[in-house]
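Researcher: Next sequence.
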Amino acid sequence: MEGSASELAKVVVLLAAGVIAVPIFKRLSLGSVLGYLAAGIVIGPYGLAIFAEPETILHVAELGVVMFLFVIGLEMVPSRLWALRRQILGLGVLQVLVCGALLTAVGIAAGFAPVVSFIAAMGFTLTSTAIVVQILDERGESSTPMGQRAISILLLEDLAIVPLLALVAFLAPVTPMAASGSRWEHMAIALAAVAALVAAGRWLLNPMFRILAQAEAREVMTAAALLVVLGAALLMQVGGLTMALGAFLAGVLLSESTFRHQLEADIVPFRGILLGLFFLAVGMSLDFLLIARDWRLILAAVLAYMTLKGVGIFLVALVLRTNRREAILRAVLFAQGGEFAFVLYSAAATAGIFDAATNAALTATVILSMALTPLLIFALGRLMPEEEQSFDGIEVAEGLEGQALIVGFGRFGQVVSQHLLTRGIDVAIIENDTEMIRAAADFGFKVYYGDGTRLDVLRTSGAEIAEAILVCVDKPETANKIVELVKAEFPLAHLFVRAFDRTHALHLIKQGVDYQIRETLESAMAFGEEALKALGVPPEEAAEITAENRRRDAARFELQLQGGMYAGRTLLRGNISVPTPLIPPKREGKVVDAATAKPMDERARPDEKAEQSRP
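Model: Next structure:
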């Protein structure tokens, strides 16, 4: 019993370490990966020494990387790869080759064997996908052209781990007892294993999942998903290749399957837990005695690898005519090593290419580079000035006159403008995004550059003579600032404002705007009405339901103005079943609508105002 309790206590410690560390590190903008690594260091042999043999945990946790590669394979739909082919095969391949060559040269110059130098260099070339994607998300740049280029490079690097792992198996030293033909025999077995997996993926997996789906047993589908991942991994391992390669190939073969999303949903929880466990084990494996003994070598490796990799990335970016600012940002962002380096180095150590000391030193180098990256990005943001927008062909708002002034010309403002322009109303438009202004010009719009949060810009844009000012910006704080200025300086103008959500709409009403509307309200109403029609509801009834929901929403909004956000909750229809009275309640002799608490003959008519009333 004591042994069982001890093992259970270790499991609790593992979970607690991740649960405590990850939120703290994410709050500090350092990422979940570093949180797991730090937690592993704390509970490992060189911390609290709760775990003395992290290799045991690392062996099990490698299944997290296996499942990670399976999910990556599921996302490798041929159509997506084709759409990104130029960036992946051009920018991605060139960056990997240039950085790999530079870092390999460093290793050889330092006196390491060519094979060791090459594997070490290629491992460091693979950037941390988790850290880069998180930083891009935090900066709001994931969907920008720069972000898409970065993601394309990451995609290529994720794919590169597959041939690199196969190369490790090929480069593994052959024992003296092995015959000269044994390497070719191993290659034949490996090719046979790959062929068997491809055949199973094309002709067995989809029929199998179709049969299992008919059984309508969710747990069986989950078990089947795990069976596919682990079975493919085992087949590759038996064939002398890596488990990760098998999982990736299985994912690619199922990427266009009708069961793809179900498989991903079943695997992701296991992948997340095991991948976190993998990073914990890597943190435990960080040999501080080695770092203390060889700190000069490790520090030199971190500086040399990050500097040369950054230089290589910067040169590739310039050769491909990337602007200097993006080239610098990409060089700093990608100068680190990544989580796949741990996988590659572990495989190299298992294959006998690395000895234990080399593996430990390289792993420490990668971890330190990952830890430095968020700090370098923070420093870069302070040192590098904000990107200056190009004003070529852009006119600044000055001396504008118009019956209406539109502030913000994104997708919302563009639609709004059509009503005014159709009626022939003279409209002045300002926008602070120069790229948006140029794009609008291509479609026949004259848009001027101007920041609507500045009083002087509003004056030069004609706010003093405009009968109506339409605030169509997408950020609530920006809209609030403009509303404050307009109400104080141009009180005679009708003020129409795009509201971000219900809370923002309530705030705008209290600020005294003439009209506001939540940016998703009308589209959601139309969306729901069309869904009802598709489900067989007659068009007349669907329209009536939409009108009724408009009345409910307006009534709830009025209650919230007086009683706060949670007022009027009874007007919402939830999907939790509640008992309904058999006899409608009565009030002063009148039948009452249980939903609106109003007498039946006093309920709002369809022609009543649907949206929020003016204050």
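Model: The radius of gyration is 31 Å. The first helix runs from residue 2 to 27.
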